[in-house]
User: What shape does this take?
Amino acid sequence: MRNHSVSFIAIALVVGCGGGEGPSSSTTAAPSADVARTAGGEAIKTADGNAVSKKAHGKWKSALDEFEANEKSGWTSAECSSTAKAFERVSDAQGGGFAEALYMAGLSLSRCGDDGAYDHYEAALKVDSKFCKARVAMGLRDLENGRMSQAKSTFEESIKDDPQCTSGYTNLAIVQRAQGNNDEALKNLRRALAIESDYLAAFNQMALLHYDRGRQGKPAELDLAEVVCRQAQMLDADYAPIYNTWGLIKVYKGDVISALRYFQRAIMLDPDLFEAQMNFGQVTISFRGYEDAREAFARAVALQPENYDAIVGLGTALRGLGQFSEAQAQYERAEQLNGNRPEAYFNLGVLYQDYMSGSVADLKKARSYFGEFLKRAGNAPEFRSSVQNVNTRCDQRQSKKRGAPKCRPGRMQNIDISIEAMQMAG
Assistant: This one.
């Protein structure tokens, strides 16, 4: 699955006069007759200043066409491998010293989640140690694996090596935003846009930053976030992540119908956008649109098979559709994936209390699951209402007195009442 924090922009090779100039003092020019040139006669160079041969340039154009065709039609494992090899042949034609081609070979493999992509990024950095996109790609691996401080250092290094590294500024801003340093994040996003005024990934992150501020009690920031979304839409009406962000803003504003429309638009443009599938599923399930939710969560699970939240979401959609054994399988799958999280236990408790046979055995099983939920939920604020829903105990004698405050028994007490009634009756 692709990382949407950095949108793909076809790498442009440097155009220089005569093939002799270049940013690197170690430039080794190809023989003049073998140098690829523009229609105006200007030599085409790699980022580190080496003149590109005609053979390598021809293969480059062919490989880039193949990459862009796959971007439009969708990638398969075979196409990822084929396109990567096409870029490898570009580098071979240039004598192995073509950082851009090695990077693009890695990017092709990354479209199918192939870890071999990082070998190509490292190879690109050996050719050109200051190559921005390859350095940022290595930082993204650290970020995805939870090594935030290491990722931050890598993004800072990419900017130090190349002050024009827009993806470096943008991803550094992502880290800073995650750390709560929104002011510095905003500065770096502005730096990225000063370099590349239509860099959509920076627009998306800027909208998310204003969205965060809006949720922190600054409602005017939500309006500003929508302005940024609108600007990005005007630049490219087919950029999927911006619609996902726009949908989040609408949800927070309470305009759920518009939010659904934006999430649907994001999914239509990019069915592989995991966040949009998750958001659409969560909103539709709140409206009991269980079939739509099932489709969205199933796609999310296909994209990230070990994503706990997607698996639990799929289980809940299946439960709403009356597919109880299938729902149970998903909750148990989530439990096996991460037994320390409480959500799967809560949902298994609900399943056994509300949707199974209603027997004493099933109710006892529900009570057991709720007990496991309470152990893991603890005092975490995000589970406070669910803990109360499970754990509230009412004094039944006091509740019957006139004028006594109303008390609604929690799930555990209701289970105990039901079991006691069945045992007395039986």
About this structure: The first helix runs from residue 54 to 73. The chain has a mean pLDDT of 90. Residues 14 and 396 are 80 Å apart (CA to CA).
